[in-house]
Amino acid sequence: METTQTAVSAAVREHLRRLCLQEFPCGTGSWNKSRFLPQTWRAWRELIPREEEAVNPGEETVEALLGLVRSPHSPWALLEDSSAEDRFLKELAIQNPLMFKDSFLYTYFRSLRVVDKQVSLVDKDLLKFVKLEELILSANRIKEVNAANLPPTLKVLELYGNKMTSMECLCAHPPPGLQHLGLGHNKLLGPMESLYVTSDHWPNLVSLDLGFNDLTDLQSMVASLRTLQYLRLLVLQGNPLALVPYYRGFTIDSLSGLCVLDDITVASSEKHQFRGLGHSGDLLAHEAQLVVTIGNVRGVLDSSILDPEPGPQGPFITYSYYVTYDFVEDEEGEGDDYGGVLAEVHPPLSSSWSHSQPCSPLLDPLEIGIVRPSPSTEQLGEDILEEVIEETEDSVESGPESLSQSGELAESLASGGSAPLPRSTDSAEELAKLRPHLDPRLLPSPGTVLFSTVRKPWADVIPCGYEMQHTLKDLVPLKAFLLSGTTVTIVEEKILSWPVSVPPSPDSPLPAKKGKGEKDKKGKKEKEEKDKKGKDELRQDPPILRVLGSGLVILEPLLAGEPFVSTVCNFGVVRTLETDQLTSARARKTKTKVPALSGGRLLTGS
């Protein structure tokens, strides 16, 4: 069933009706009828000498009527969000109500603001506003605009926050004198959109806002914008194309007349820094690079203090802790070509952590930033680009390592070396085995991959020392991901280990044959060593995972031009004074009695 479309002219008429310009205290009526008597009758009345101006009983003076609409306590006062133009029309309807005819209104309006009125149709009645210069139609439901219905006198046209998917409809009969075009927060998508921002359609355009759409082709867009010789203000932030490296430098160098880009004034130093970059478009990376950095985890409860001491038959329990976050998956890349690089860094640890109060798991700091290479004052291009490409290829060739059955990395990074983290899809079989133990918060959302820091043992301050660079080619899903944010989770991994049971050796060996004594003695020795090794081996159960805290990190500022997002995640209280006292007591006990194995003897030192 088709819904009724609301036209712009209908919304304007409805707005004028709500102003009540023909009702008390505006318009004409018993409250001011003597002011509008026929001229002959009024001329006769003016012959009567009066000491002061007076009105008939039951009528109001103009000043009194104006006071009714100006006073904030009056029931006829305008709403607080009313525009200055509404106030002017209201007062004019009191001072000279006979002027209010259609011919006056169509010639009076030079600016129309129809915002958030559910408008979906730009109708031909707009052409009646013969002096209209500014038309604001933001926050409506407009999908297409018939440009033939736009007054040719327009200089400003704003269509922010609508549902437009293409600018093609505006280019059929564009207003020739348009100086500002605002199409931000729509759904413009596709490489063809660059064909509709040329001087053939907008010869006098000074300001253009295409922010927060789904435009991806920076080079084609900039090539078309070069034809706009009067363009001085440009907004492209919020589009996927603004996430690529060198976006700002390439745009500034390509559009020499630009004064403001993304609401930031273009400085002369920027023009000098990025000189020559506009001619290296084919060499620039057509992908986004973002770096995720995770610092320390504080306030985690040491769960081992609640476990009993293990017996000779086990279980021997170990705990480790790590942080996970989800990140968008690059659909255009191969599964093994994910541009992730892990590097161990060692931030300084804080020594002022107090145990006297209940503690919350804190993740500080978590930073996610867009890679913006710093340009040199000379030519920017081949040297930097080749270095970035070589680093990316090296990280791809290294490949991700798979998880062992215990869920830990195959090799330890304790020495400070670097190695890539496994992708969630690489351990699909392990995830299937662990599914009964998994919290739903440990599963990545659709279209994302789950990343985690290296497992670390418990400490007052657990240093994650994590840095991962994500390189993505498919920019539209990346924009959607940044709008939705990432979920950060602190996970405790508990592993139970048991001694491997070895079949007992026979009490008495078989009778040895003559001449075989040395051989039997050697076999017996090997069997004894094998039995001893079996007693030292431990069998590990699948890890038991417990979520200690989880929260959403807002990433939308990255789309708005911020270079990075930094936050401290507080996940609530899990440590208390009692548990901290148990931890301190165990630490004192460990210092008092420290076992050490030296020279085959068990030594105990105080």
Automatic annotation (TrEMBL):
Sequence ranges of Basic and acidic residues compositional bias: 515-538
Pfam families documented for this protein: LRR_8
Gene3D superfamilies linked to this entry: Ribonuclease Inhibitor (3.80.10.10)
Disordered, as annotated region: 390-429, 501-538
Domain of life: Eukaryota
Xref: InterPro entries: Cilia_flagella_integrity, Leu-rich_rpt, LRR_dom_sf
Assigned keywords, A-Z: Leucine-rich repeat, Repeat
PANTHER family per record: LEUCINE-RICH REPEAT-CONTAINING PROTEIN 43, PROTEIN PHOSPHATASE 1 REGULATORY SUBUNIT SDS22-RELATED
Record protein name field: Leucine rich repeat containing 43
Organism: Sus scrofa (Pig)
